[in-house]
Amino acid sequence: MNSWNEGIRNAVCYMEEHLTEELDINEIAGKAFVSAFYFQKIFHVLCGFTVGEYIKNRRLTLAAQELCSTDIKVIDAALKYGYRSPDSFAKAFARFHGVTPSQARERNCSLNSVAPLKIKLTLEGGTMLEYKIVEKEQFTVMGVSRRFHTETSYEEIPAFWREHAESEMGKIVCGMYGICTDSDDQSFDYLIADDCCPGSEIPGGLVTRVIPAGTWAVFPCRGELPKALQDVNTKIWSEWLPSCKAYRLAGSCNVEMYTEDRNYSEIWIPVEKNE
Fold first, then answer.
1. Which of 143, 210, 218, 230 is deepest in the core (most CB within 10 A)?
2. Can you say whether residue 155 is alpha, beta or left, with left for phi > 0 and alpha for psi between -120 and 50 degrees?
């Protein structure tokens, strides 16, 4: 992988240069030298908001600036900044700015602004993060699966766990694993799963997934959930991976492993040696 900072900087510059065009997440992620699946995960952890939210907020910022400084028509601004109709544009504009596009032209109208992201080198890290590199054989899991949109998954996956725990399936699948597998550019499949013996009978409503053999970076998470896991997850993407010279990301499957001890869990990230 090329420089982490360089990759994110390239991706942000690409988004800024093409805000009035249709943006493809694969093209954006390619500038950062990672897959769309990983780029969206990394971006959210580092920035605190999703790629889609950033693009939308930057477009609405520029639209407001243009509306109050030029005579562009509202319908033309809507089309220029990626909206199919003036109505959808007006609704998004009002949610972001608190006023309609027409009101934005008035003197002394208060508007909101999101500045372009700037990548700065700062002194971070220096904290202990325990991990080990492990070779794992192929294994099969059985569980319940649901597809999530990348933009809303952080809110919806915890609800999925709560729903599962209260369901009949929760009596069959305890939830040893939470597994993310890449699906397409905008979504991914998430499994609440347990180990499964190949060839065993699978109850109706459950699916199986084969997790391929490979090299994994395994990060212990000690402490109360979900905070302990979230803290380690943030350090993995913001500190460990950017500074790791020996390994780079591989595959498109991340695993959360839970134990009976609710104060101990693990995050597994697929990796391969840098050449």
1. 143
2. alpha
- Residue 187 pairs in a beta bridge with 149
Partner residues linked to 134 by β-bridges? 216
Tell me if domain 4-105 and domain 132-273 are identical in fold.
no
The residue extents of the domains of the chain are 4-105, 132-273
Query: Which residues, 6 or more positions from 217, have their beta carbon under 8 angstroms from its beta carbon?
Result: 131, 132, 133, 134, 236, 240, 247, 268, 269, 271
* CATH (residue range 132-273): 3.20.80.10
Task: Report yes or no on whether pTM surpasses 0.85.
Answer: no
* Tens digit of each residue's pLDDT (9 = 90 or more) over 5-24: 788 889 999 999 999 999 99
For 158, 170, 212, 268, the CA distances from 209, given in Å and listed in that order, are 21, 18, 9, 16
Burial class of 261 by CB neighbour count within 10 A (0 to 12, 13 to 18, 19+): exposed
For residue range 251-262, list pLDDT tens digits in order: 788 999 999 998
Residue 5 to residue 23: CA distance in whole angstroms: 21
Structure tokens at 22: 């249709």
Residue 46 CA to residue 238 CA, distance in Å, equals 6
Residue 200: CB atoms within 10 A of its CB come to 9
